[in-house]
Amino acid sequence: MGMNWISFVKIKENVGLNTFAIEGKISRCTNCNGELLQAKNKEIIGKVPDGVIRNFKEFWECKKCKKIYWNGTHIKNLQTFVSELNEKL
User: Fold this and answer.
1) pLDDT tens track for 48-72
2) Which InterPro entries match (predicted)?
3) Who contacts 72 (Cβ-Cβ below 8 Å, separation ≥6)?
């Protein structure tokens, strides 16, 4: 992957993590670090493409900047990355 695994080892040691994880319920907004709150489909109509609403069931909205998140391919790719990272560490 070309990642600097040593940096992740240092983070893990300094923070005292057992493993890295992607967890929607405790995640923060990547835009402003705001708290993410679960959102209902009807609350996000017009804020995301219609296809996203049809294809996904869970959504989160940033309390501060109102950015919308869902478990699309980006999250799946991050979960794969984190799984590989934990195997290497």
Assistant:
1) 999 999 999 999 999 999 999 998 8
2) Mut7-C_RNAse_dom (IPR002782)
3) 52, 56
